[in-house]
Design goal:
The complex is a heterodimer of chains A (565) and B (311). Chain A has 565 residues and is of the alpha+beta class. Chain A has 18 helices and 18 strands. Chain A has helices at 7-33, 42-49, 71-80, 129-139, 158-162, 193-196, 207-213, 273-281, 293-301, 330-338, 342-350, 378-387, 407-424, 435-443, 462-465, 482-491, 498-515, 555-564, and strands spanning 51-55, 85-87, 94-96, 99-104, 110-115, 174-178, 181-185, 235-241, 245-250, 264-268, 307-320, 355-356, 399-404, 428-433, 449-455, 518-529, 534-535, 551-552. In chain A, strand 13 (399-404), helix 13 and strand 14 (428-433) form a beta-alpha-beta unit. In chain A, helix 10 packs antiparallel against helix 12 (378-387) and helix 16 runs antiparallel to helix 17 (498-515). Chain A is globular and about 75 Å long. With 311 residues, chain B is mostly helical. Chain B contains 14 helices and no strands. The radius of gyration of chain B is 24 Å and the shape is flat. The model of chain B has no long low-confidence stretch (mean pLDDT 86). Classes of the chains: A alpha+beta (565), B mainly alpha (311). Chains A and B meet through helix 1, helix 8 and helix 14 of A and helix 2, helix 4, helix 6, helix 9 and helix 12 of B.
Amino acid sequence: MKTFVSPSLLKTTSGNTYSRVGYSLLTLILLLLVGCGTSENNVSNGNRDNILHWGNGTEPQSLDPQIATGVPEHHIITAVMEGLVLKDRKTLEPIPGIAESWTISDDGTIYTFKLRKNAKWSNGDPHIAQDYVWSWWRAMQPALGNLYVYMLFPIKNAKKYYEGEIKDFSDVGVKALDNHTLEVTLTNATPYFLQLLDHYSTFPVHQATIEKFGTADQRGTRWTYEGNLVGNGAFTLADWKINRRIVVEKNPLYWNAKNVRLHKIIFYPTENVTTEERMFRAGQLHVTNDIPADKISVYQTKSDSSLRLAPYLGVYFYRININQPHLADKRVRRALAMSIDRDQLTKNIVKAGETPAYAITPPGTIGYQPPRQFNFDPEAARQLLAEAGYLNGEGFPTTEILYNTNEAHRKIAVAIQQMWKEHLNIDIQLLNQEWKVYLASESAGQYQISRAGWIGDYVDPNNFLDLFLCGGGNNRTGWCNEEFDRLILEVAPKAKTHEERLAIFTQAENILLGDMPMLPIYIYASKRLIHPSVKNYDSNLLDQPSYKDIYLESPMEAAKKDTNL
Amino acid sequence: MIKFALGRLLQAIPVLLVVITATFFLVHSAPGGPFSADKAVPPEVIKALEAQYNLDQPVWQQYLNYLGDVVKGDFGPSFKYSGRTVNELIAAGLPTTAELAFYAMLIAVGIGVLAGVTASLRPNTMQDYVPMTAAMIGICMPSFLLGPLLVLVFGIYLDWLPISGWGDIPGDKILPSITLGTGYAAYIARLSRGGMLEVLSQDYIRTARAKGLSEPLIIVKHALRGGLIPVVAFLGPAFAGLLGGSFVVETIFQIPGLGRFYVQAAFNRDYTLILGMTVFFSTLIIVFNLLSDMLAIWLNPKLRQEIRGTK
């Protein structure tokens, strides 16, 4: 069939087709735009409904406290689970958690915990002392691959059991005396033991749930997913959308539920720090995980109250491979340490509240002040280098700084390269490697100088100094000093008083700094943007929030309060 | 046509095998394993983990096991995301990535064809130069520049549109789709202009004009079908490219799609996830290429004849 269409009609029709498409597109865009004038956003809605929107860095790899290892995991696990003790949100001193009280024997080796009778699992099961015995047994199963198992090693026979030297778990120093009394026996007095009990790797796990989804030492079962996970924390896991969000809701069965003010926390995987900052500005987040380095000065000049920089229990340092012939001389290593201008570095390069480091242990760690053996002193550095046979840097082999590919690390390495050229007249090359390649090179000792960082797991100098024990997995420098090992492993645990123990650490750190197998560079700072409506969020050394204490107050409510006063 | 499709699908098998083999041995030979970490991992833990994921077997054995699993459609467990299978991760990210690619495609084809055809109607005039210059800028502008620019203008300064997420807030799909689609729109604009120019100089168009048909009728009914063949041929690889190449856009806009997994998997040495994603994307590319070839055959009588001739 043929249809006759008048050419003039067609013309208008097709002309209209074009404009119709154009109009439809415009209408569509306008329609989509309607309602997007974003006066309503996550922050304002959250303040109204008590929902905290939290930028959490990355997608967690696991919420099993005995498998997880990262900070993003930590933030979620501590919301849904709790240990025997908690930490004071300001001072980080241990305070009662699931244990309402405890006693410590005079020799410091036997801890007796009284568990709260009103503590329950989120499915209503009673929470008993036996839960800890089972959980710590599980934590010590080698097949589980628990990277933090060493947190339990202060317990008598724990290490031997883990390594298979003893087979019977009843020989390990953890006993349930009755349903609400747990007795833990340690090998030696360990003054930081209570600190460890707030680390998620020592949290109890719910036996029946784990056994429902697999065997106790099986990795990667589904017990940690929404609908399955049974915890004992202030919140319960309500939803987990991969790479999108994790939602936790207030747990009505939590022993201290009446003091928990948030109804929900929503954790977002915010890998891209630039996007995260924009989300914060657009009112989609209450708290960010980080701040882009170049934005910090912008917030500082505006004196924006959202910016929160605080000291963080971590140290940025360079490892030195002392098996390299020219780096085996400690005078060379000390010369390198003394010719880094850390003030300039922290003020002009890293610029985010970091402070210069002259020792491996961050100052103020439970009252410990690390010794200071050197200053920025290029003259003395040159002198030392000359004594080592490199007068005015002549004959010093070109040396390589290895770092994992990252713009911030590169900037620091370039600055140090220039400082060493200027002050010591030595040539430095930079080598960046992708993260896993860098790890492999460093562990295999295939480097000369290598970037490193260490974040404390618990607040104690021991956690920093024991990095450099002979042959330790985290040492990687080839440095070994028997006296240092003896002080850390044998003398310090037997110290009678806190002061005596700190004095021993000072002695050990002096040995370390005298030999300088690493170059301390700066102490980390935690960097966050926190919306003014978030109250009771205190920054602490571990950058560990106490969700139970946090509440939200919109600026309007705050203003109302002020006028009422 | 069916025979042609079957033949092409059979050809895909050796291609996939090569892809799997090459990827498998490449990821296994990369330095650093899935379980190395900043904090020293005790050797006994590494051993236990390797045993759980069968990494303690010889590599060839692992390779054969993997092939067997892939044939059954099982990509295995992810090493990094404890308890998640690769199939589950792909299933979680695919709808989002596919939706993003679909919207980007709509934008690319809508704007691209419109601009290309408009330009081809009056070549070497302003009507040609303006859209083609815009297309050139679009091709040159990488999404990691365009995305943040759009965010700054529409998200922060004008505060019209949300700047991140996918399906959480109304309108949050607009900026990512535009960012991803623009480069392809520009490419399609150039392709359709070229195709149209060629067709418009053909004899049958001249005949149509001589018959006195109106210009819009000639364009819509006679020229477009031939002129858009290059665009159609491009659509298949383009869609596969949109699916696989959305990583940057997904990162900028915090979108829970597949692209983010792909890159993270490589950094984490998550062997099974890298392999699973690669096999998955390879299959997609093969299928979309096939579909666009079939579409091109359907549109182009010359090709149809060629296929019949080879029978």
